[in-house]
Amino acid sequence: MAEMVNLTIDGHEVAVPRGTTILEAAKTIGSEVPHYCYHPGMSSPAMCRLCLVEVEGAPKPMPGCVTTVMEGQVVNTQSEQALSNRRGVLEFYLVNHPLDCPICDMSGECNLQDYVHDEGREHGRGREPKRIFGRDDFGGDVLFYGDRCVMCTRCVRFMSEVEQDHRLTVVERGNRSVIDTFYDEGLDGTNWHGNIVDICPVGALVSKDFLHKARAWDLTHTPSVCTSCSQGCNIDLHTRDNLVQRIKPRENLDVNAWWICDHGRHNYEWMNRGDRLEAPVMRSDSGSQAMGWGDALRALLEKSDGGGSVKAVASAMSSNEDLGALKALVDAMGGGEILYRSARAEDEVPLRGFPLLARRKDLSANSTAADLIGANRVGADDGTGGLDEVSNHDGIVLVLNDDLADQKEDFGNNASLFVYLGTHDSPGAAKADLVLPVTSHAEGEGTFTNHERRVQRFAKALDAPGMARPAWLVLGALVAEKGEGPAPRSAADAFAAMSSSVAAFAGITWDDLGTRGAVLNESVSVTGD
Amino acid sequence: MSNVPFKNPGWAGNTGEFDLTENQIRGDDFVGERPAHGGHASGAGTMPYMLSEKQPDAPLFEGEYRERLDKVLSRYPTKQAALLPALGLAQEIRGHISPESMDEVAEALGLSPAYVRGVATFYTMYNKRPVGRHLIQVCTNISCNLAGADDVVDAFLKYTDTGLGETSEDGNFTVIEAECLAACGFPTCVQINSRYYENVTPTEVPKICEHLKGQGE
Ligand code: SF4
Ligand code: SF4
Ligand code: FES
Questions:
Q1: Given strand A518-519, what is the order of strands in its sheet?
Q2: What's the total number of domains in chain A?
Q3: What is the pLDDT of residues A176-210, one digit of tens each?
Q4: What is the distance between the alpha carbons of residues B42 and B51, in angstroms, rounded to a whole number?
């Protein structure tokens, strides 16, 4: 336990570990000292001068981002001196700023806009013409609007300290200073540069993908987990009009800190896919017939009786709840093999400055849970193949969330019952007796288990199309009909059912997960029950 | 004593205060030579020197210049710390620091080219574009400005028939403005290559330029 230091900030007594900065100490009483250059994930150059606070007895204002607390210190972040410091500094920030908030993507979540509105001068006094840089394409997903830059160098430090590829620099000096790469080199070929858009406190670095797409205040933020590899980065899905507009990282120091990779950041279009299955459909030689869930499930149960042994294809993109319910249903039908396929990248892409984080070779969100329910991985590293036996199986075939994209139309031809649960139709589902629409990861609640066996929750960001339902709800109802326990009514119920039946999840509850996740008991073997 | 036809040519001796002439003390080459290997390691990395002949296409850090760079590196704890003198060497050889030179310096020191660009552009004494044989930097900061520095700039531009930063057709002159040269007591101060000309007025400008033309050829 670090030694504690007692001090007073804005009249509140606080105790923080020795070595804490005033800025961080102020956060503990809910006081945000305005700042630009400071970011908790990088070094502090103390160059923006916005965090100057009054420390009683000190001869001059102190930068809160680098001044560490001292016993008995009295700090004022809201005194007349502190406010007038910031008013003055902010006036300088506007000397060359183009004041183009109405066309700036950062508007609504911009630290310059917010600070000036809160504490800046009512009117500018500048009379001189502003210097003009215009904008620069940095390559990758990044556009740079030089005139909006406050020269905090967060972006430069991210690239040099965290990604550790020193592509960005401050070029020139004084009022000609501007952020740039080595002439036309750009950021192409780097894997984490999207983060500089996130940490830029103003609208100087913006995402090309998001350019003029939505206003910040129209977006709904929903906590979620990235599905693009087994790292399980914590993210927020930003949605408007029931569409995901962009992905932003969500802080979790145990997994991804403040960062996500560019691949995961941009892999969201599939969540907005329009050609969705919207109603349960029964297929036969005489054609397809849409029906309600009750009829569909009754038909399924009827046909499954005496249908023979079960072979199931799961997806490593399915949630723990879906996989647990699938496992329970397979068991309730007399047991059978569960297979899954999962694409693998050739190399891991580490984030050098934060070694816990890498884009993993395993490009599926939930291979760990698939393994833990006893499913076997088949197929090639591109996520195809390996299903020949299932394709020709003459018993019951269940397919959950694998879109069978590489399979032929005769997949499941010999099955006594072929049930396809998915988000969209596929040629491989042509012979399915029942096609059941399920929700995507963005449309439901649930959990994933990442590469280090950390179970993390994601929330519902989009409304599901038509009659699509979470797979755990559908599968859980079937399990209940088979007489194996109550039907789950929430993702928490489904999780509880899984943790009572899959050994590796024993002893972990929905409440344990919180917003940061919980790691499964290390002593339980990976093959589970 | 002075054989120079204007009052303050950058050498106090020419005002008659000393017996020694500038020639006797340091030669009258306004641009000059110094051995490519740089002499002793302690001096090998000092300020870029204006060579009378620039070689924009010469290889950097080969032969004697490689030896010189190694001497410079031996004086610093890390390669990164030797960036300024390494850029100085590049400028001495080629006369200016082009993007290609930055890239080569980055390569030689194991730094990223972007970082080298940041450093090279921060310092105004690195020429980012080719300059003439004589680089004329006129201080236009407060004191000199009050004493009429703008007119001095105009006079140089008129004589050399160039715009700011351009090189005259004969390759002799490039005129730029400089921030304070720390000679505020002697406005207008003009730095030509590595020497100061103080109390310069527009009428002396042609004489100075004529004088320079006879130098370092
Ligand atoms: S571009 Fe943004 S992050 Fe980079 S220095 Fe400017 S304001 Fe800071
Ligand atoms: S590292 Fe993996 S989990 Fe994290 S953002 Fe990238 S793809 Fe998503
Ligand atoms: S945050 Fe302290 S000086 Fe920038």
A1: A446-449, A454-458, A518-519
A2: 3
A3: 999 999 999 999 999 999 999 999 999 999 999 99
A4: 20
Q: Which residues line ligand 1 (CB under 6 A)?
A: A 149-155, 179, 200-202, 204-205
Tokens of A475: 């599968």
Say whether residue B110 is in contact with chain A using an 8 A CB cutoff: no
Question: Rounded to whole angstroms, how far apart are CA atoms A466 and A471?
Answer: 15
End residue of a domain, out of A252, A272, A292: A272
CATH code at position A63: 3.10.20.740
- Domain of residue A27: give its range: 4-78
Query: What is the ipTM, given to two decimal places?
Result: 0.87
B35–A contact, CB cutoff 8 A = no
The Cα–Cα gap between B213 and B138 comes to 18
Whether chain A has a CB inside 8 Å of the CB on B103: the answer is: yes
Residue A308 and residue A259 share a domain = no
Q: Which of A221, A253, A272 is the last residue of a domain?
A: A272
Confidence at residue B1, expressed as pLDDT on a 0 to 100 scale: 36
Residue type, A6: N
CATH number of domain containing A172: 3.30.70.20
Least CB-CB distance to B114: which of A172, A173, A181? A181
One domain, residues A263 and A291: no
Q: How far apart are CA A129 and CA A123, in angstroms?
A: 16
User: What are the Cα distances from residue B29, in Å, to A522, B47, B92, B198, B212?
Assistant: 78, 17, 16, 18, 9
* Set of chain B residues whose Cβ sits within 8 Å of the Cβ of A167: 112, 114
User: Do residue A493 and residue A424 come from a single domain?
Assistant: yes
Domains, chain B, in order of start with CATH, read 18-127 (no CATH), 134-213 (3.40.30.10)
Ligand 2 pocket test, candidate residues A260, A265, A361, A450, most atoms within 8 A of CB: A260
pTM (two decimals): 0.92
What is the tens place of the pLDDT at every residue in A51-86? 999 999 999 999 999 999 999 999 999 999 999 999
Nearest CA in chain A to B106: A182
